[in-house]
Amino acid sequence: MNTTTRVAIITGASQGIGAALVEGYRKLGYAVVANSRTIEAGDDPMVLAVPGDIGEPGVGQRIIDAALEHFGRVDTVVNNAGIFIAKPFTEYTDADYDAITGVNLRGFFEVSRAAVAAMEDHGGHLVNISTSLVDQATTAAPSVLASLTKGGLNAATRSLAVEYATRGIRVNAVALGIIRTPMHSDDEYAGLAQLNPQKRIGEQSDVVDAVLYLEHAGFVTGEILHVDGGQAAGH
């Protein structure tokens, strides 16, 4: 166990933005604990795969415990895992509510609570992945449960940033617009690009760049950084 190498935990890490973040942190020299429901171990000994549904009680603590047992410390958590279901409000089901709040809220809460406890002796950084729909709702994507949960994450980001500012723990969020990921099919992108003033789709590298900027920005905490082509600014 090497307790000097910095360690990042990334949820939702098996594909898309999460997998790109794993690669980004490895390039920085971080060891990575990668979580998703079905993630499998790879060839890199500095990437520990911890499968599990963070919406289930106890999984968040298990991820942090695995990081401490394997690498000896926790320095950064990127709460990337999330569920997004766009539906008219009255068509949401109880199952939709349970799934979205389970991952977006319970997952964030349990992972972050355990991580902050592990960071208190040396400091650290939480990054919460949010959405610009919290700031700029649109009829093109009715998504009140995303706003309910991710809006809560934005508020929690600021609250935790203030609570832990003097203890060396920074807390920030990255609010995303439309990013090219497996969540969308190729034929959707032309229409989705119209949701932001730049009229284009963001790339996964744009998200990684934003998260890694915050990782290096020691005087930045409580920030909601929009990576959305100007979507949150207006149309």
Automatic annotation (TrEMBL):
<keyword id="KW-0560">Oxidoreductase</keyword>
<dbReference type="InterPro" id="IPR036291">
    <property type="entry name" value="NAD(P)-bd_dom_sf"/>
</dbReference>
<protein>
    <submittedName>
        <fullName>3-oxoacyl-ACP reductase</fullName>
    </submittedName>
</protein>
<dbReference type="InterPro" id="IPR002347">
    <property type="entry name" value="SDR_fam"/>
</dbReference>
<dbReference type="GO" id="GO:0016491">
    <property type="term" value="F:oxidoreductase activity"/>
</dbReference>
<dbReference type="Pfam" id="PF13561">
    <property type="entry name" value="adh_short_C2"/>
</dbReference>
<comment type="similarity">
    <text>Belongs to the short-chain dehydrogenases/reductases (SDR) family.</text>
</comment>
